[in-house]
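Appendix B. Chain record.
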Amino acid sequence: MALKSSSADGRTRSSIQIFIVVGLCCFFYILGAWQRSGFGKADNLAMEITKSTGDCNIIPNLNFETHHGGDAGSSDDSDSKPKTFQPCHSRFTDYTPCQDQKRAMTFPRENMIYRERHCPPQEEKLHCLIPAPQGYVTPFPWPKSLRTALDTGCGVASLGAYLWSRNVITMSFAPRDSHEAQVQFALERGVPAVIGVFGSVKLPYPSKAFDMAHCSRCLIPWGANDGMYLMEVDRVLRPGGYWVLSGPPINWKNNYKSWQRPKEELQEEQRKIEETAKLLCWDKKYEKGEMAIWQKRVNADSCRARQDDSRATLCKSADVDDVWYKKMEACITPYSDSGSSDELAGGALKVFPERLYAIPPRVASGSIPGVSVETYQDYNNEWKKHVNAYKKINKLIDSGRYRNIMDMNAGLGGFAAALESPKLWVMNVVPTIAEKSTLGVIYERGLIGIYHDWCEAFSTYPRTYDLIHASGVFSLYRDKCDMEDILLEMDRILRPEGAVIFRDEVDVLVKVRKMVGGMKWDTKMVDHEDGPLVPEKILVAVKQYWVGNSTSAQ
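Structure tokens predicted for this chain:
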């Protein structure tokens, strides 16, 4: 009798286990089908932004075309249908216009020139929508969970991911891969990264930007070109900052066999590195195993011996932050002035997060024309108000869906500072045509960013940003390049179901809204947070989920 009871209990438990397994399989099948369908959180958001709500002055039929239809005599244009942009061919699913592999092969390999930016001329630009691949799945929301670093030849940005957990934000870059999209993988992990290379032009970052620079088996010939690459690291490294080198040629005596390289070659490579580091007044602080660490001295007074060295050629450029498409030089960037022998050149920084709203040294010293301490504080208060308004628009920021965020016209970093959260990061872009060069201030705040000209494609893969903020971008680029090109580039780098927040004059946003009407975007016009009489408005857009197919025209 006990045997029968035991057997019956076993069959019951077995049936329950089978039922649970089948149930879980069904659940995950439905979940996967739901996510692949594109009907996710952003679709709900898309529906929400087209509803009539009383929050934040969202008006269901906010229409300015009657009074803002463009130039005089063009009233018919405001009533015409928007141009419909067709999907590109599926072979362009990972297209990076300025780092296209086929075009790159036509440039010389000397100093990695072929790996640098080479943008297509206007007649070769694609005027279609870059498709997501078949089966593309939008990421699930991220779990809740020194300050700035530069990682050169970053691979999949493992260092950046590690440092992020310690509240250090890393700008990682690596060349465009011909077979492994490492930068794309890093961004899919939610780690900041761009396509870039040590070649013949300067890095698109300001001087004194990073507290640390790192290279782990990055294959950069640091000793070549009279130490030019190390001199560029020195330019972007803050006084007192560190350079970390891991891998060849460090400890070559014990590793040359495993590296399969001649020991004479490795010895000479390390000799050149040591020689250039000494010329730069870097002090070697540590060497063990395959790792060595140097520290940049704090000011010019701590490096007087360099003044008597005939090999120490100082850069003559009046603006050390003027770097866009400027040739890299084998010269040393001079220190900023300091008040005493132990004072940090360029000014000391607070510990993060206090650093975020402390007065940056470049502002305190009056280095940014038209920006005083008072105007800087007013600017920050204004952006706190703007971001609070954004948060009321269907909880765009706090939804948990947005990890990789871009500010296309970052100014002094007010948007990113007001957003600061361990759940997200912001790529602050300072346009090269901006009136003020403010990227140095952004780094002094403990944020990261890059110089860029929006008349060209950005150095990233398609579908790498969850949210794009564009404040005044189209007013800035009015008559500089086609609005269509900028919007198509935004579409390329925005993930399906990603969002865009435009802030601009109403006549500009009317044109933007009409154009994106043919790009598979849902939009909603919103009043300025100070009321409907303010001419500046907000346009919220959500990119629809869709994937490409091999029958697309281009």
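Further analysis of this model is presented in Appendix C.
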